[in-house]
Amino acid sequence: MHNGNINYLRDSSRKSKKNTRRKNKDTVGGLLYRRRRGFLSRSGISAGAAALFVFIITLIILTVYFFINSEPRSPIDTSDTENVSTSGVGDSEGDGSGTGDETQADEDKYELISVDNSIVNKGYLILVNPWCEYVFDDDENIVLLYKNKDKSPHYGLATASISCDAYIFGRLNEFVNAYYEATGDDGTIINSGHRTYEEQEALLTSRIESVGEEEAYKYVAIPGYSEHHTGYALDIVSYENSEAAGWYVDNCWLYGFIHRYPEDKQDITGIHYEYWHFRYVGEPHAEIIMLNDIVLEEYIEMLYLYSYDSPLIFEAHDGVTYQIYYAACDGEPTDGGKTDIYVPIGVEHDISGNNVDGFVITTVMDSANTAQ
Ligand SMILES: [Zn+2]
Description:
This protein is α+β, with helices and mostly antiparallel strands and 372 residues long. It has three domains: 19-69, no CATH class; 76-125 and 295-372, Phosphorylase Kinase, domain 1 (2-Layer Sandwich); 136-280, Muramoyl-pentapeptide Carboxypeptidase, domain 2 (2-Layer Sandwich), CATH 3.30.1380.10. It has helices spanning 6-11, 14-43, 47-70, 166-183, 197-211, 213-219, 244-251, 266-269, 285-291, 296-302; strands at residues 110-116, 142-144, 155-157, 163-165, 188-192, 233-238, 257-261, 274-280, 312-315, 321-328, 338-344, 349-353, 358-366. Strand 9 and strand 10 (321-328) form a beta hairpin. The longest helix is centred in the first third of the chain and has 30 residues, at 14-43. The structure holds zinc ion. Zinc ion (ZN) is lined by residues 192, 228, 233, 235, 277.
């Protein structure tokens, strides 16, 4: 089930970093051993030179240690988007598991709660891509769009069966109505929303029949691997206004949506550029993703750097300050087990799975923190 690319995420994340570090250590150790042996046998001793060698190595180790520890770990804010390492380069310490031995965080302010491991596969931040399969669930709360369409007259539906997650529906109306307010164009059409496995299968089959396999696979995901299964993805276009795509891309973050498949990120998303496909991830995640010019794959990876005792602190455009961190799943999502997660006491928190290996906890730190 997890082939190649899920490993892209995993490999470039904490687990493989540990392996890489271990490998590096072995390599350095091996080199040291070989060099010392060669050195001693060639020169026939020189305790002084050996001591000098050990001294230099110690100096190098201390320098590297100092460099690693002096690396800034401070969370990003809106004015410092460079501070986010999306590639994980230099991540030598933040494995973000929240279960490490560093528990300097004020223990009194946190409590442990028990979360079902199956939550890994649920929530607004789940990653679904060509390598990360969606886990179908009977509890999905999917609603038909046309039933509430009278509340939002400024868009049409490609078919009467178009549906999405019940909560997303409200945000979609705000999003599309804001476009209408800004442009006067009521030609927006929702082309696609939630899809079942069977619907995705039928779509792929019909695309293959009409344009051939190669073209079809560029845009249509294999059943089980489409973001449309989540109910959080919508295809939005306007046939009246060619500028619509630009407005939707620029403003989607204000409504908790991200432009999911940018042109310059195809190698990461595995999906061809689609100006019409938007995905709900919620606030403040959409804003952070927009500010850092990253895609969901990169964001999920970035969050591995933050644990409850070293969270990402983010002040959103509306002055609300959020605290965001990752906690690893203790086991597998399907094992029926539970994971203990630290959450701030008495503070509203939201937990979403990442659909890979853990949970993302989002809390509002200080809603009164407005500068205006
Ligand atoms: Zn789509």
